[in-house]
């Protein structure tokens, strides 16, 4: 239990939110607590009466609530959330995925028509996310006040930490940040979900990690699976680790199992019966049984059999396929029937492929040596079948499902701001980041590229200048400077001192020399820089060969890495000047 020390400016209340695709949780801690661990909120509205009670272990209070929102059809300012959102077909689910619709979807899941989905929503995704975040935060505060008193909670300055997938785009991270701030949370820190899991796992397991040991964290949740590999730099006085391999992931979470279960039932009963069944209470009961029991306990044994009931459904019997008296006996009896295995295997295989990418990437960095551990965390990470398959694939690596794996992300996020935490010292870049610039034309490099004459009488062409490359070790709080140079006419005005630039990203390897119109090359964000208040003595007066006077303005766009977030500022001669705004592109 977290010990609540006396309020003071040096001690802060940390509130960490694991905003998930299917389930969300909150944990809290005090920043200077040297002894205690973060505490999960484990009392949620309707948690016991709802069939969404998925505590994971018998008798345990659930530490997460369904990420669901249901709006009043006549007033979108009124809504219910979590388990209270019920089973209505018009409830909003998986809104987190709509914050980054650019993420590729696995072949075994139906295509997502993001624009179509968004058009059906009562509000923009960001506002729905803010409604949900605000609701669970207010509930968490009310629960904390029952233990620590209203006055005590109010007396503490607060830090908020939110988790995001490792492969989340910067636009989606920014949208998550905006949703949290719209919900009234400020200041907000972002941390990658596998990093939060790594912090909690190293703290909770107290395993014998030694300097240079490496481990893979696989955070398998409802919507996304995220992985990062780490290497231990030192263990005393605190564990310090660095990212060894750039984070990877995809939409291979257990939500795909639910969708594949839907497809399996549709094939089992036929289109005609499915039209009636899919919106019935009987099917809702069956789907929740699959979600609550089958997903967690399936182990791929030949005698595995699960009895899925569809109460009052009046389905036609089909004994050959295991359907009798509105009950489907899901079997694992090869070679005749492999109902459960067929549902699981494509998604399990996708997770195994993601793990393989991390293991092989780590081995390449470690001179052929394998990581010491693979940690499986998250709701899907508790799957017994997933554990079995990973152990079979990697017999020489210790595969662990840490205690409280479902709460690991929220608790690890709280540890991120605590003084007794493990420390992640650096990240490994997942993309190239850079700017386009007008470089001097080089015939061997730039043949066929468009050119432009400049005021300094040079011929130039547009080339890419990459300042961050895939795999670069990015130290926390390190500043990376992107230099810019502007040429101003002699009669420039203050209105002419607002400049628009693009920060580009690319996942091609190697990074392209010139801007592309295809592939993963795209605008990360549009940056508006305002130097109208900058001192004029910073503008260098020059004259070209034709006697035309112009001014040259040189400055740096400064990118500072803080957790999962990039912060932007402007500098001239090493001093901060002007203001900068970034508009991220999905």
UniProtKB/TrEMBL annotation:
<keyword id="KW-0547">Nucleotide-binding</keyword>
<protein>
    <submittedName>
        <fullName>Uncharacterized protein</fullName>
    </submittedName>
</protein>
<dbReference type="GO" id="GO:0005524">
    <property type="term" value="F:ATP binding"/>
</dbReference>
<keyword id="KW-0067">ATP-binding</keyword>
<dbReference type="InterPro" id="IPR013126">
    <property type="entry name" value="Hsp_70_fam"/>
</dbReference>
<dbReference type="Pfam" id="PF00012">
    <property type="entry name" value="HSP70"/>
</dbReference>
<dbReference type="InterPro" id="IPR043129">
    <property type="entry name" value="ATPase_NBD"/>
</dbReference>
<dbReference type="GO" id="GO:0140662">
    <property type="term" value="F:ATP-dependent protein folding chaperone"/>
</dbReference>
